[in-house]
């Protein structure tokens, strides 16, 4: 059987795979990308973009209603059909022509089908009709196959055809009653979206709401969800699920309650897309997350095998996966050309920020924007820290932003280095504020110098000055 040769083969054309391929082509190598569904991946069609489109209109409406003068101009309710229509556009109507054209313009060859490793630097691609094409990589194979929703082992759940994040992101109708299992990022965002769109939502939070964030984030989001009419059940979980013949779903909880709903959304984390990837053909375990070194080389794989994005479990976020993609694309080019590899801390060919400065925005109401370590995580890492809290609603810019602005900020300072290692902001429109904190953490800007970074008056950014004043000089 003949094989087509490329310098680099990328399996998975999500945001991460696309960026890896682009980077290696820009570095002068040839690249092929293998995709079994839509070019653009989860983020474009079933995750980041459509879910944020579902949330945005409700958020804008709430903002207008919090402002005298603007409030009076809002006379109608949310136009659900228009929101869903705008979401469809943001999901490109689940067509990938635009991204396929981009691949062509970037000089990347697309092979459609299921990609499987079939030996050292060999990938077999099985197309829709069953035909198999064999590809060989001269330098590297990069696995960027992403992740899928995890379905917990709850009796009856799988048979009940639950919604996962995919159905929640792409739904054509808003269910009357929605039960959400889980209370992490997907669960809280989708509870916010669907309650705004008119569903009666119940959220089952086994481990608390947003348990990975600073505790006040979960508390504020819980309070606001409840104010919006969402029933948030803390410390409980689904123990059995059944869909009846009329289509209703019956959920039994650990505390013996029975809840009836039209749909049940499972949002309890992710599982790697490595079950059908031929990992056993290269000595690795199918179905496992792919552990990697800082240059994204797979532990226990050949020197030619890399993994980037969700599939390596370092940080399940598009921006962080694309950051890894830039590092891995460049390191493959450097190694192919025999150039020096810059793999020291914060070097060009490593993703140092994955461990120390990952920003994330949860688009709930209020928004939760964070970067770096929470106080609990910093303590667990053995750092000697000081925690500085400040009421975000007390800065002048917040009072101007909206009536009764409520928010909270926390800065975590490493007392030995006198630098910030974590910052969390909770409040309306804090999303756009977090990048300043990312720069302060990545740049390891000393607190003494931060006093000279003066926030403009009257903006919500004045929180920076208030946090410094509270810390003391
Ligand atoms: C509901 C939801 C909302 C989210 N919102 C945000 C957000 O607002 N911001 C953010 O930063 N992150 C968000 N995320 C996370 C983000 O979607 C992921 O981190 C991101 O999609 C990971 O990109 P990736 O390229 O690694 O994987 P994916 O986007 O999953 O792409 C992997 C691609 O590989 C393909 N593939 C898999 N196996 C094979 C195979 N064997 N052969 C061929 N092709 C294969 C898949 O079809 C897919 O196209 C969200 C996630 C969810 C679930
Ligand atoms: N705005 C964003 O950046 C954004 C939005 C959505 C998703 N994402 C990414 O997608 C990934 C997946 O999100 P997710 O919400 O599925 O995972 P997650 O890890 O954020 O939350 C899962 C939650 O489910 C809980 N849980 C686990 N098993 C459970 C069970 N059997 N019953 C009840 N609860 C259970 C966990 O305690 C956890 O709180 C995240 O890592 C996140 O980074 C990002």
TrEMBL record:
<keyword id="KW-0520">NAD</keyword>
<comment type="similarity">
    <text>Belongs to the class-I pyridine nucleotide-disulfide oxidoreductase family.</text>
</comment>
<dbReference type="InterPro" id="IPR004099">
    <property type="entry name" value="Pyr_nucl-diS_OxRdtase_dimer"/>
</dbReference>
<keyword id="KW-0547">Nucleotide-binding</keyword>
<feature type="binding site">
    <location>
        <position position="269"/>
    </location>
    <ligand>
        <name>NAD(+)</name>
    </ligand>
</feature>
<protein>
    <submittedName>
        <fullName>Pyridine nucleotide-disulfide oxidoreductase dimerization subunit</fullName>
    </submittedName>
</protein>
<feature type="binding site">
    <location>
        <begin position="182"/>
        <end position="189"/>
    </location>
    <ligand>
        <name>NAD(+)</name>
    </ligand>
</feature>
<feature type="domain" description="Pyridine nucleotide-disulphide oxidoreductase dimerisation">
    <location>
        <begin position="358"/>
        <end position="464"/>
    </location>
</feature>
<dbReference type="GO" id="GO:0004148">
    <property type="term" value="F:dihydrolipoyl dehydrogenase (NADH) activity"/>
</dbReference>
<keyword id="KW-0285">Flavoprotein</keyword>
<feature type="binding site">
    <location>
        <position position="115"/>
    </location>
    <ligand>
        <name>FAD</name>
    </ligand>
</feature>
<dbReference type="Pfam" id="PF07992">
    <property type="entry name" value="Pyr_redox_2"/>
</dbReference>
<dbReference type="InterPro" id="IPR016156">
    <property type="entry name" value="FAD/NAD-linked_Rdtase_dimer_sf"/>
</dbReference>
<feature type="binding site">
    <location>
        <position position="52"/>
    </location>
    <ligand>
        <name>FAD</name>
    </ligand>
</feature>
<feature type="domain" description="FAD/NAD(P)-binding">
    <location>
        <begin position="6"/>
        <end position="320"/>
    </location>
</feature>
<feature type="binding site">
    <location>
        <begin position="145"/>
        <end position="147"/>
    </location>
    <ligand>
        <name>FAD</name>
    </ligand>
</feature>
<dbReference type="GO" id="GO:0006103">
    <property type="term" value="P:2-oxoglutarate metabolic process"/>
</dbReference>
<dbReference type="InterPro" id="IPR050151">
    <property type="entry name" value="Class-I_Pyr_Nuc-Dis_Oxidored"/>
</dbReference>
<dbReference type="GO" id="GO:0050660">
    <property type="term" value="F:flavin adenine dinucleotide binding"/>
</dbReference>
<dbReference type="InterPro" id="IPR001100">
    <property type="entry name" value="Pyr_nuc-diS_OxRdtase"/>
</dbReference>
<dbReference type="InterPro" id="IPR023753">
    <property type="entry name" value="FAD/NAD-binding_dom"/>
</dbReference>
<keyword id="KW-0274">FAD</keyword>
<dbReference type="InterPro" id="IPR036188">
    <property type="entry name" value="FAD/NAD-bd_sf"/>
</dbReference>
<feature type="binding site">
    <location>
        <position position="310"/>
    </location>
    <ligand>
        <name>FAD</name>
    </ligand>
</feature>
<dbReference type="Pfam" id="PF02852">
    <property type="entry name" value="Pyr_redox_dim"/>
</dbReference>
<feature type="disulfide bond" description="Redox-active">
    <location>
        <begin position="43"/>
        <end position="48"/>
    </location>
</feature>
């Amino acid at each position: 059987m003949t094989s087509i040769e490329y310098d680099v083969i990328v399996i998975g054309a999500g945001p991460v795979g696309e960026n890896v391929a682009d980077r290696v082509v820009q570095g002068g190598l040839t690249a092929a990308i293998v995709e079994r569904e839509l070019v653009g991946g989860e983020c474009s069609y079933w995750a980041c973009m459509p879910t944020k489109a579902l949330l945005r209109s409700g958020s804008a409406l709430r903002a207008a209603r919090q402002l005298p003068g603007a409030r009076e101009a809002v006379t109608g309710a949310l136009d659900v059909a228009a929101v869903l229509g705008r979401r469809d556009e943001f999901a490109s109507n689940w067509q990938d022509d635009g991204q396929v054209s981009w691949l062509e313009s970037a000089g990347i060859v697309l092979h459609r089908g299921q990609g499987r490793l079939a030996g050292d630097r060999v990938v077999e691609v099985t197309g829709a009709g069953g035909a198999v094409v064999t590809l060989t990589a001269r330098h590297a194979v990069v696995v960027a196959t992403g992740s899928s929703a995890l379905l917990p082992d709850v009796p009856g759940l799988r048979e009940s055809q639950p919604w996962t994040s995919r159905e929640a992101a792409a739904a054509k109708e808003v269910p009357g009653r929605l039960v959400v299992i889980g209370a992490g990022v997907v669960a809280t965002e989708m509870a916010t979206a669907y309650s705004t769109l008119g569903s009666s939502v119940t959220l089952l939070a086994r481990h608390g709401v947003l348990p990975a964030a600073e505790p006040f984030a979960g508390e504020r989001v819980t309070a606001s969800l409840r104010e919006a009419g969402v029933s948030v059940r803390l410390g409980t979980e689904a123990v059995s699920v059944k869909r009846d013949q009329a289509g209703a779903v019956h959920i039994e909880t650990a505390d013996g309650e029975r809840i009836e709903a039209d749909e049940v959304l499972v949002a309890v984390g992710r599982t790697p897309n490595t079950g059908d990837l031929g990992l056993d053909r290269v000595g690795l375990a199918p179905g496992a997350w792919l552990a990697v070194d800082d240059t994204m080389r797979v532990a226990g794989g050949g020197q030619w095998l890399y993994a980037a994005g969700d599939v390596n479990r370092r940080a399940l976020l598009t921006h962080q996966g694309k950051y890894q993609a830039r590092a891995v694309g460049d390191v493959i080019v450097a190694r192919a050309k025999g150039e020096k590899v810059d793999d020291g801390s914060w070097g060009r060919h490593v993703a140092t920020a994955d461990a120390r400065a990952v920003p994330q925005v949860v688009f709930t109401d209020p928004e939760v924007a964070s970067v770096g370590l929470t106080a609990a995580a910093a303590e667990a890492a053995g750092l000697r820290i000081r925690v500085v809290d400040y009421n975000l609603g007390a800065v002048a810019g917040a009072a101007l932003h909206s009536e009764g602005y409520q928010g909270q900020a926390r800065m975590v300072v490493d007392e030995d280095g006198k630098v910030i290692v974590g910052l969390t902001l909770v409040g309306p429109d804090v999303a756009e504020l977090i990048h300043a904190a990312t720069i302060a953490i990545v740049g390891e800007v000393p607190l003494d110098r931060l006093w000279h970074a003066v926030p403009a008056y009257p903006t919500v950014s004045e929180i920076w000055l208030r946090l410094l004043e509270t810390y003391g000089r």
